[in-house]
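Protocol step 4 of 6: record predicted structures for both targets in the notebook before any analysis. Target 1:
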Amino acid sequence: MSLASELRAVRSAAGLSQKAMATRAGISHSYLTEIERGARGWKPSLELLERLAKAAGESPSVFRSYRHEVVCRRWPDEVDKLYTRLVARG
């Protein structure tokens, strides 16, 4: 599931409009709209994901798949080292 669809699902489950969620998260309505549309180049930070989750009354882990993608993109060498250590443990 993409971040856009995850975010829409979380917001809908919380019963929030885009405007209400954006206000609670401290961002503009247009920015939230772009994220939910999956517009190119709109990649929220982990900190923003935490604010969005909190705005919906959820744990930041609700966006687990996107958080994993961000970590792998930012620190690929560290992820490779961790993976190698885990595999070595068997």
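Target 2:
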Amino acid sequence: MTPEDFEPEVSFALAAIRSELDSRYLCPRQQVDLDRALLALTSKALALGQAVCHLVRGRFYGEAFGLARSSVEAFLLVKYISNKDAEERATSYLNFFKAHLYNAEQIRKKHFSKVKRPGAVKRQWLEDAKKFPSRRSWQNPYNMATEAYLDPRETDPRTGKPFQAEFDYYGIYEHTSHYVHCNSLALIPHLTSGGVPFKTLSGPDRDGEKGLLALHYTLAYLYMICIIAFRQFDTELPPQLHAQLDTVLTKLRTALPSSRITFAKPKAP
């Protein structure tokens, strides 16, 4: 079976998650940035899943695989923000847009000095941006992944210690990064042998495993994000949705031709 054979089931699962989220009327509390950040990241992860499905449906497997890295990143953010000092981290994360504006302002001053200067509110944001330790990235993904997850429900039964996401970083985030940054690994389907007239890639991507992995990753990480976000509102996903998602993920894993990958997902309360 091809990845696009599995795509309708993943799309249906995403629709079920959307329906569950929208029907709960989860309302972020005023002046509680953690509520807003977790719900926004959940919505973003859902949109990423839908985009991956569109790419797989069009047989752009490598591109879907690269986009799946953003699903991993969304999970790392949710894990890190909710782990400790949660409100402080959420506020810092949401305010990091000021750092991006700061970087854009440096470009304006260097290359477009005649463009109108920012107004008073934006100038204050630029001053606020100077307080961030780095204005290039909010947190290092490796640090977010390897910080022990302190939720008592997430203790590794094999070691008795809190879970980390080290495999998620090295095994998935780093691998998908090759297809985000156009590293040479991502060029394999596009390479032409020496002495042969070059032709651009036409027709479907033949690396179906990347399509299957993209579907699996984007749904699995959205699943984990939803569990954490729902806990923030003292609720959980219904058992039937757990069962539906587990079934789809199992089908995707068993369809992989050369890999049998398992994921440590947060357990239902």
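Step 5 preliminary note on target 2. Residues 260-264 have pLDDT under 50 and may be disordered. Residues 33-57 form the longest helix (25 residues).
Proceed to step 6 after PI sign-off.
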